[in-house]
């Protein structure tokens, strides 16, 4: 098991009132598997995902990743892990508006501190764009891509540096049904072939078919 | 990857607009600073061209050199004790003749000095600007205060005082004209030890210039304009990058989420600021220098290289601060906010 959490707590203080959002979460993720997180709005799915991804701190509990304890690391150490070992897909693609599809991926490789040469990086990027079916648009800027195309580039960016974990918060929420299935099929295929441990939040029943495991959250706990 | 350059290439309109504004402001700054310098030169080149040193005048004159009269014994003693020291006087007056009409000049005289030209009795040496006005060597001038006539013996450069051409005359002629044997001021070069002389007040050349009422008024208002322009250009950078950064907070958050260092984002706006400032300044330096060449000769415009370089450095520093100040938002942009903003906007 590459990623585990023990007894994750999260409390938000708004003024005098402290609200317990996560009440002791034990989660583990396995390589080559998609773990889907479902549950009512406000049940704490996004909060759990962002804490797991090191984007915000937990109020209590431990997170272990690849032999290290995330919860004991400083900001810079966590940033490094995010850059090298984590991939992110969000609800909207969040591409850099002034970079071409190809450059989006090159930037990710550079950020991850890839050991590849310039030429090898280009080849890697070509391969990745090809596998998301975007090789023919590699010099296109985000503004000239459709919503589905953008999301495919975003997925390619999320995994071009071969992360060990992939975090996806409602990756299909902004896409229509056909495009959603396309994107999920892609995520499933890449999770398998690249042996990535994927944690995905979704609201869509249809998408659960792609998951290896489904966890339901209710009021800050696993139901 | 050079994010700064990629962005400038993609959204070049924004940057061209900013660059043009910085260019116009810096050009205006250079030209006004050239005018300020030119006016100051026109007003006091005679004093400004003196080497570093100390000027003395009578304390009782209360910083008005026209009222100062230095005791001849004191003068003799100071001149004897200090190598290169000399006494001098400046008075506004007129030169008159048939063909040239009336010329307003500043009469200046000194005991032998390397800084002021030697003039024989009855001769005058005039600033070069009068030669351009048509006065020739050998021209004869009258003066209402003097019975004898002056003969123009030659011309010299950079002799302006109180926006008038300087006319150097012999001390005896000066004594006859103004009915005084006493000189107004003493000059002691820096090589000699400056020290206090009883009854005399000492000034550095810069301090002396500020005792001239028109000089400080002119320079103050012009340098105020120059500094305002510099500050405005700094604020322009701050505001421009602030607006751009506000639009890009989401992007910064996402970039941080995928692991891009905050420092890399700062380097991005610094690079953009540097490139824009450099291009704008190179253009405005070139044009202001060209302006200096083609400006009409009676327009006081003087923009030396060191003043240009100083202003250039100030523009860079202030642009850097402006960009950095607005860049502080980058530090506040959190990955989390960006992701949640994405959710809300969708
Ligand atoms: N920064 C915060 N400060 C205070 N409360 C917060 C904060 N972030 C989240 N919450 C609260 O925590 C609860 C869980 O939020 P979270 O976003 O994890 O829910 P979710 O399960 O992802 O919901 P949705 O399905 O609508 O995305 C909500 O009640 C939310 O208001
Ligand atoms: Mg959510």
Radius of gyration over C-alpha positions of chain B, nearest whole angstrom: 29 Å
Q: C-alpha Rg of chain A, in Å?
A: 17 Å
Terminal CA distance of chain B: 30 Å
Shape of chain B: elongated
Task: Describe the fold and architecture.
The complex is a heterodimer of chains A (223) and B (346). Chain A contains six helices and ten strands; from the N terminus they run E-E-E-H-E-E-H-E-H-H-H-E-H-E-E-E. Chain A is α/β, with parallel strands linked by helices and 223 residues long. Chain A has a single domain, classed as P-loop containing nucleotide triphosphate hydrolases (Rossmann fold). In chain A, strands 6-7-8-3-9-10 form a six-stranded mixed beta sheet. A four-stranded antiparallel beta sheet of chain A has the order 2-1-4-5, with helices on one face. In chain A, helix 3 packs parallel to helix 5 and helix 4 packs across helix 5. Chain A is globular and about 50 Å long. The mean pLDDT of chain A is 93. Chain B is built from ten helices and ten strands. Chain B is elongated. The two termini of chain B are 30 Å apart. In chain B, strand 2 and strand 3 form a beta hairpin. By secondary structure, chain B is an alpha+beta fold. The interface between A and B is medium-sized, with 33 and 27 residues. Bound molecules: adenosine-5'-triphosphate (ATP) and magnesium ion. Magnesium ion (MG) binds next to helix 1 of chain A. Chain A: Keywords: ATP-binding, Nucleotide-binding, Transport. Chain A: It comes from Planococcus maitriensis.
Task: Write a brief structural summary.
The complex is a heterodimer of chains A (223) and B (346). Chain A has helices spanning 45-52, 75-85, 101-111, 118-131, 147-159, 177-193, and strands at 3-14, 17-29, 34-39, 60-65, 68-69, 86-89, 165-169, 197-201, 213-218, 221-222.
């Amino acid at each position: 098991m590459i990623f585990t959490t023990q007894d994750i707590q999260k409390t938000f203080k708004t003024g005098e009132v402290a609200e317990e959002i996560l009440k002791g979460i034990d989660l583990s993720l396995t390589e080559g598997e998609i773990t889907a997180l479902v549950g009512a709005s406000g049940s704490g799915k996004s909060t759990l995902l962002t804490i797991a991804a090191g984007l915000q701190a937990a109020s209590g509990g431990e997170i272990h990743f690849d032999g290290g304890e995330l919860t004991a690391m400083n900001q810079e150490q966590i940033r490094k892990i995010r850059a090298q070992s984590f991939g992110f897909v969000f609800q909207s693609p969040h591409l850099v508006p002034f970079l071409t599809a190809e450059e989006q991926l090159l930037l990710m490789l550079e950020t991850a501190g890839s050991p590849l040469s310039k030429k090898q990086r280009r080849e890697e990027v070509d391969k990745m764009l090809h596998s998301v079916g975007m090789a023919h648009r590699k010099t296109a800027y985000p503004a000239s891509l459709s919503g589905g195309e953008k999301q495919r580039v975003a997925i390619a960016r999320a995994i071009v540096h071969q992360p060990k974990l992939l975090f996806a918060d409602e990756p299909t929420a902004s896409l229509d049904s056909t495009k959603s299935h396309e994107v999920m099929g892609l995520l499933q295929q890449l999770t398998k072939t690249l042996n990535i441990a994927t944690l995905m939040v979704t609201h869509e029943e249809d998408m659960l078919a792609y998951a290896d495991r489904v966890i339901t959250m209710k009021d800050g706990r696993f139901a | 990857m050079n994010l700064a350059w990629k962005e400038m290439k993609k959204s070049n309109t924004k940057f061209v607009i900013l660059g043009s504004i910085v260019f116009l402001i810096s050009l205006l700054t250079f030209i006004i600073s050239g005018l300020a310098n030119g006016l100051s030169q026109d007003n006091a080149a005679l004093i400004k061209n003196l080497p570093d040193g100390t000027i003395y005048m009578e304390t009782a004159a209360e910083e008005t050199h026209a009222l100062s009269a230095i005791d001849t014994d004191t003068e003799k003693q100071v001149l004897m004790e200090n190598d290169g020291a000399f006494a001098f006087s400046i008075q506004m007056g007129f030169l008159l003749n048939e063909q040239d009409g009336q010329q307003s000049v500043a009469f200046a005289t000194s005991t032998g000095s390397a800084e002021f030209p030697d003039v024989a009795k009855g001769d005058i040496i005039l600033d070069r600007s009068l030669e351009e006005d048509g006065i020739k060597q050998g021209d004869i001038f009258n003066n209402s205060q003097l019975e004898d006539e002056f003969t123009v013996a030659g011309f010299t450069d950079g002799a302006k005082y109180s926006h008038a051409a300087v006319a150097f005359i012999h001390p005896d002629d000066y004594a006859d004209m103004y009915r005084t044997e006493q000189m107004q001021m003493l000059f002691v070069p820096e090589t000699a030890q400056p020290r206090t002389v009883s009854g005399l007040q000492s000034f550095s050349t810069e301090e002396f210039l500020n005792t001239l009422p028109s000089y400080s008024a002119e320079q103050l208002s012009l340098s105020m304009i120059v500094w305002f322009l510099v500050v405005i250009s700094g604020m322009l950078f701050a505001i421009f990058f602030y607006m751009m950064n506000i639009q890009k907070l989401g992007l910064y958050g996402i970039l941080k989420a995928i692991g891009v260092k905050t420092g890399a984002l700062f380097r991005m706006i610094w690079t953009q600021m540097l490139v824009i400032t450099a291009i704008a300044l190179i253009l405005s330096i070139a044009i202001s220098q060209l302006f200096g060449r083609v400006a009409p000769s009676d327009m006081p415009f003087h923009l030396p290289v060191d003043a240009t370089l100083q202003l250039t450095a100030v523009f860079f520093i202030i642009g850097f601060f402006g960009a950095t100040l607005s860049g502080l938002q980058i530090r506040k942009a959190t990955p989390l906010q960006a992701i949640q903003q994405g959710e809300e906007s969708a």
